[in-house]
Write a structure and sequence with these properties.
Elements lengths: L5 H12 L1 H16 L19 H10 L2 H19 L2 H12 L7 H8 L3 H19 L3
Helix pairs in contact: 2-4, 4-7, 6-7
Length: about 140
């Protein structure tokens, strides 16, 4: 497996840290696509004389938007990986990326898990590699 650059690792960690924000961005993007407005803020569209399958239109609009699909892929990857993690890996994710009360350092996590800092970082690297692989970076 090719090694990831420092900035790529930081981007992948950002996906985990900002998971909740990505979910909000996805919902907003979906609303934005399904309720288009013009520059004056007026709703675009209206009634037409043709009968159409609105569900199919919505699906097509969402499927053709690259930004929406990218957000969806990131969220699905994080959710799927988290559900597959063992307890130690979940503790790492919870403490390092998802705990809003404090910023835990690697030493704090290693103390909680009763393993070395080096082993915690190895587990984190496995998580980063799996995330990159599922997103399609490697």
């Amino acid at each position: 497996m090719p090694t990831l650059s420092r900035s790529e690792i930081q981007n992948i960690e950002k996906y985990w840290i900002e998971y909740e924000q990505y979910k909000k961005k996805l919902k907003y993007r979906e609303w934005e696509l399904l309720h288009p407005h013009n520059e004056q803020g007026e709703l675009v569209g209206g009634r037409s004389n043709t009968i159409s399958d609105t569900t199919a239109k919505k699906a097509m609009v969402l499927a053709n938007d690259a930004y929406y699909q990218n957000l969806k892929r990131i969220i699905k990857t994080v959710e799927d990986l988290y559900s597959e993690l063992d307890e130690d890996m979940r503790t790492i994710v919870d403490m390092r990326y998802w705990d809003k009360d404090g910023c835990y350092e690697w030493e704090d996590i290693s103390d909680k898990l009763y393993i070395s800092r080096h082993k915690v970082l190895r587990k984190r690297n496995i998580l980063i590699d799996k995330t990159a692989e599922r997103i399609g970076w490697v």
